[in-house]
Amino acid sequence: MKTKVIDIPAQKTIALVAHDNLKPKLVAWCEQHKAELEKHKLFATGTTGKKVALATGLELTPLISGPLGGDQQIGAKISEGEIDVLIFFWDPLEPMPHDMDVKALLRVAAVWNIPVACNASSADMIITSSLMNGVSQREIPDYDGYLQDR
Ligand SMILES: O=C(CO)COP(=O)(O)O
Protein backbone atom coordinates (compact mmCIF):
# COMPACT_ATOMS: atom_id res chain seq x y z
CA MET A 1 0.00 0.00 0.00
CA LYS A 2 1.16 3.53 -0.71
CA THR A 3 2.00 5.50 2.39
CA LYS A 4 2.83 9.06 3.25
CA VAL A 5 4.49 10.76 6.19
CA ILE A 6 2.58 13.33 8.18
CA ASP A 7 3.61 15.76 10.92
CA ILE A 8 2.06 15.28 14.34
CA PRO A 9 1.95 18.49 16.39
CA ALA A 10 3.70 18.69 19.77
CA GLN A 11 0.32 18.60 21.44
CA LYS A 12 -0.79 15.03 20.82
CA THR A 13 -4.28 13.65 21.06
CA ILE A 14 -4.31 10.69 23.43
CA ALA A 15 -7.14 8.17 23.84
CA LEU A 16 -7.40 6.50 27.26
CA VAL A 17 -9.26 3.20 27.63
CA ALA A 18 -9.23 0.49 30.27
CA HIS A 19 -11.31 -2.59 30.95
CA ASP A 20 -12.89 -2.74 34.41
CA ASN A 21 -10.21 -4.84 36.15
CA LEU A 22 -7.51 -2.53 34.80
CA LYS A 23 -9.20 0.81 35.53
CA PRO A 24 -7.45 1.24 38.90
CA LYS A 25 -4.11 0.70 37.13
CA LEU A 26 -4.90 3.25 34.44
CA VAL A 27 -6.13 5.77 37.02
CA ALA A 28 -2.89 5.30 39.00
CA TRP A 29 -0.88 5.67 35.79
CA CYS A 30 -2.72 8.90 34.92
CA GLU A 31 -2.08 10.26 38.43
CA GLN A 32 1.60 9.41 38.06
CA HIS A 33 1.86 11.12 34.66
CA LYS A 34 -0.64 13.93 35.20
CA ALA A 35 1.88 16.71 34.51
CA GLU A 36 2.74 15.16 31.14
CA LEU A 37 -0.85 14.28 30.23
CA GLU A 38 -2.01 17.86 30.92
CA LYS A 39 0.03 19.05 27.95
CA HIS A 40 -2.01 16.98 25.52
CA LYS A 41 -5.63 16.61 24.36
CA LEU A 42 -7.34 13.66 26.01
CA PHE A 43 -10.24 11.47 24.96
CA ALA A 44 -11.52 8.45 26.88
CA THR A 45 -14.26 5.87 26.69
CA GLY A 46 -17.20 6.63 29.01
CA THR A 47 -16.49 4.85 32.28
CA THR A 48 -12.73 5.14 31.99
CA GLY A 49 -13.08 8.87 31.37
CA LYS A 50 -15.36 9.36 34.35
CA LYS A 51 -12.99 7.55 36.72
CA VAL A 52 -9.84 9.25 35.38
CA ALA A 53 -11.41 12.72 35.50
CA LEU A 54 -12.75 12.20 39.05
CA ALA A 55 -9.48 10.85 40.41
CA THR A 56 -7.05 13.19 38.65
CA GLY A 57 -8.98 16.31 37.66
CA LEU A 58 -7.57 15.93 34.15
CA GLU A 59 -9.66 17.58 31.46
CA LEU A 60 -10.79 15.06 28.91
CA THR A 61 -13.51 14.49 26.35
CA PRO A 62 -15.59 11.45 27.31
CA LEU A 63 -16.91 9.25 24.52
CA ILE A 64 -19.46 6.42 24.65
CA SER A 65 -18.80 3.54 27.05
CA GLY A 66 -16.86 0.71 25.38
CA PRO A 67 -19.54 -2.01 25.35
CA LEU A 68 -21.98 0.54 23.86
CA GLY A 69 -19.70 1.57 20.99
CA GLY A 70 -16.87 3.58 22.55
CA ASP A 71 -14.12 1.40 21.07
CA GLN A 72 -15.65 1.89 17.63
CA GLN A 73 -15.88 5.64 18.24
CA ILE A 74 -12.15 5.78 18.99
CA GLY A 75 -11.43 3.56 15.98
CA ALA A 76 -13.37 5.97 13.76
CA LYS A 77 -11.40 8.89 15.17
CA ILE A 78 -8.14 7.06 14.45
CA SER A 79 -9.14 6.49 10.82
CA GLU A 80 -10.04 10.18 10.55
CA GLY A 81 -6.61 11.20 11.86
CA GLU A 82 -7.91 12.56 15.18
CA ILE A 83 -5.99 10.31 17.58
CA ASP A 84 -2.18 10.16 17.85
CA VAL A 85 -1.67 7.79 20.78
CA LEU A 86 -3.78 4.95 22.20
CA ILE A 87 -3.36 3.92 25.83
CA PHE A 88 -5.58 0.86 26.11
CA PHE A 89 -5.23 -1.38 29.16
CA TRP A 90 -7.26 -4.25 27.78
CA ASP A 91 -7.91 -7.26 30.00
CA PRO A 92 -6.23 -10.45 28.80
CA LEU A 93 -7.96 -12.53 31.51
CA GLU A 94 -11.65 -11.71 31.05
CA PRO A 95 -13.97 -12.41 28.11
CA MET A 96 -15.67 -9.23 26.87
CA PRO A 97 -19.12 -9.01 25.28
CA HIS A 98 -17.69 -6.50 22.82
CA ASP A 99 -14.50 -8.45 22.05
CA MET A 100 -14.93 -7.85 18.32
CA ASP A 101 -14.97 -4.09 18.92
CA VAL A 102 -11.78 -4.38 20.97
CA LYS A 103 -10.09 -6.32 18.17
CA ALA A 104 -11.34 -3.82 15.60
CA LEU A 105 -9.90 -0.91 17.57
CA LEU A 106 -6.50 -2.61 17.93
CA ARG A 107 -6.55 -3.49 14.24
CA VAL A 108 -7.36 0.01 13.06
CA ALA A 109 -4.65 1.40 15.36
CA ALA A 110 -2.16 -0.94 13.66
CA VAL A 111 -3.39 0.08 10.18
CA TRP A 112 -2.83 3.78 10.96
CA ASN A 113 0.52 3.19 12.70
CA ILE A 114 -0.67 4.59 16.02
CA PRO A 115 1.55 3.96 19.06
CA VAL A 116 -0.45 1.68 21.37
CA ALA A 117 0.27 0.84 25.01
CA CYS A 118 -1.57 -2.13 26.49
CA ASN A 119 -0.04 -1.91 29.97
CA ALA A 120 1.70 0.53 32.32
CA SER A 121 5.25 -0.31 31.29
CA SER A 122 4.56 0.32 27.60
CA ALA A 123 2.57 3.44 28.48
CA ASP A 124 5.59 4.66 30.52
CA MET A 125 7.77 4.24 27.44
CA ILE A 126 5.39 6.23 25.26
CA ILE A 127 4.70 9.08 27.66
CA THR A 128 8.41 9.59 28.44
CA SER A 129 9.45 9.41 24.78
CA SER A 130 11.10 12.54 23.37
CA LEU A 131 8.65 12.17 20.47
CA MET A 132 5.87 13.29 22.83
CA ASN A 133 7.44 16.69 23.39
CA GLY A 134 7.84 18.15 19.95
CA VAL A 135 6.51 17.82 16.43
CA SER A 136 6.89 14.19 15.40
CA GLN A 137 6.18 12.29 12.24
CA ARG A 138 4.17 9.20 11.40
CA GLU A 139 3.89 7.11 8.27
CA ILE A 140 0.25 6.44 7.42
CA PRO A 141 -1.68 4.89 4.52
CA ASP A 142 -1.93 7.31 1.60
CA TYR A 143 -5.66 7.12 1.15
CA ASP A 144 -5.76 9.15 -2.11
CA GLY A 145 -3.11 6.87 -3.58
CA TYR A 146 -5.00 3.86 -2.27
CA LEU A 147 -8.14 4.92 -4.15
CA GLN A 148 -6.23 5.61 -7.38
CA ASP A 149 -5.10 1.97 -7.41
CA ARG A 150 -8.68 0.67 -7.25
O1 LIG B 1 -14.91 -1.40 27.32
C1 LIG B 1 -14.02 -0.61 27.14
C2 LIG B 1 -13.00 -0.84 26.12
O2 LIG B 1 -13.19 -2.01 25.38
C3 LIG B 1 -13.91 0.61 27.95
O3 LIG B 1 -15.15 1.21 28.14
P1 LIG B 1 -15.46 2.01 29.45
O4 LIG B 1 -14.37 2.99 29.64
O5 LIG B 1 -16.78 2.69 29.23
O6 LIG B 1 -15.51 0.99 30.56
What does this structure look like?
The chain has 150 residues and is of the alpha/beta class. The chain has a single domain, classed as Rossmann fold (3-Layer(aba) Sandwich), CATH 3.40.50. The chain is built from seven helices and seven strands; from the N terminus they run ββααβαβαβαβαβα. It has helices at 23-32, 34-37, 46-56, 70-79, 99-111, 120-127, 143-148, and strands at 3-8, 13-18, 41-44, 61-62, 85-89, 116-117, 136-141. α3 links the parallel β3 and β4. α1 crosses α3 (46-56) and α4 (70-79) runs parallel beside α5 (99-111). 30% of the residues are buried. The model has no long low-confidence stretch (mean pLDDT 97). The structure holds 1,3-dihydroxyacetonephosphate (13P).
Strand and helix layout:
Elements: E1 3-8, E2 13-18, H1 23-32, H2 34-37, E3 41-44, H3 46-56, E4 61-62, H4 70-79, E5 85-89, H5 99-111, E6 116-117, H6 120-127, E7 136-141, H7 143-148
The structure holds 1,3-dihydroxyacetonephosphate.
What level of helicity do the residues show? 40-55%
Structural class: alpha/beta
What's the CATH architecture?
A: 3-Layer(aba) Sandwich
Radius of gyration: 15 Å
Distance between the termini: 11 Å
- Summarize model confidence as the mean pLDDT: 97
Shape: globular
What is the topology, as strand order, of the major beta sheet? 4-3-2-5-6
**Domains counted in the coordinates: how many?**
1
What's the helix-strand series? Answer: EEHHEHEHEHEHEH
Strand content: 15-25%
Assembly level: single chain
Q: Which class in CATH terms?
A: Alpha Beta
The distinct ligands, each listed once, are:
1,3-dihydroxyacetonephosphate
CATH topology: Rossmann fold
Number of strands: 7
Unreliable stretches (pLDDT < 50, length at least 5) are: none
Q: How many helices in DSSP terms?
A: 7
